[in-house]
Amino acid sequence: MRSLKSITVLLLAGSTLLAQPAAAASWLEMNFGLLRGPGYDGNVPTCDWGLGTISSRFSQKESRFWASDAVIDDYADVREVAYRPWGDKVIPRRYCEAKALVSSASFGKQVWTKVYYSIGEDTGFAGFTWGVNWCVVGADRNLAYAPDCKQARP
After folding, report:
1. Quick check: 85 and 154 in contact, CB under 8 A?
2. Which of 7, 92, 134, 153 is the most exposed place for a label (fewest CB within 10 A)?
3. At 24, is the pLDDT very low, low, confident or very high (cuts 50, 70, 90)?
4. Angle subtended at Cα 12 by Cα 7 and Cα 15, rounded to the nearest 5 degrees
5. What are the residues facing 98 on neighbouring strands?
6. Separation CA 84–CA 95 (nearest Å)
7. In the structure, how many helices (H) and strands (E) does the chain have?
């Protein structure tokens, strides 16, 4: 019994002496590509690139889910708001805004409204290409980016 206690004490003392503080990553892990995560090159298209996608997806969403004939006819004042606002270690995104001319027979007229959107590297289908997240102010019926598309901005 006494020898069992002394062996336990020796094992505990030895384990505390041999323990090392946790490190973020060893040299091998830092130089092994799969453990570092994806390497982004920051090559994101300009704001004009996503406008066609936004137009087609907007009309598709309006007709399919809301039984509306609203479409985006034109854009104006397209500008970049931010590029990589959270630094170099996260997915590169270009945040943009534009004015969109939305028309619908139910409106009976054309209305200018804001569109906020981001283009992200490797955020498209299956992470292979650029993706576009967008919100049209006044047409966010499911409140995905509420209030007033604030969540679509940086």
Report:
1. yes
2. 7
3. very low
4. 120
5. 115
6. 8
7. 4, 4
Peptide bond into 147 cis (omega under 30): yes
Q: Which residue has the tokens 């969540």?
A: 151
Q: How many CB atoms lie within 10 A of CB 74?
A: 14
Angstrom distance (rounded) from CA 116 to CA 112: 13
Q: Are 94 and 116 in contact (CB under 8 A)?
A: no
How many alpha carbons lie under 13 Å from residue 109 in its C-beta half-sphere? 3
Q: For domain 47-152, which architecture applies?
A: Roll (3.10)
State the residue for tokens 């498209």: 124
| pLDDT beyond 80 at 76 | yes
Q: Which long-range contacts (CB under 8 A, 24 or more apart) does 104-112 make?
A: 104/68, 104/69, 104/70, 104/71, 105/69, 106/68, 106/69, 106/70, 107/70, 110/73, 111/138, 112/76
Residue 136: closest CA among 51, 41, 63: 51
How far apart (Å, rounded) are the C-alpha atoms in residues 71 and 78?
18
Strands (E), the chain: 71-83, 93-104, 109-120, 131-136
The mean per-residue pLDDT over the stretch 15-36 comes to 52
Structure tokens at 105: 């027979």
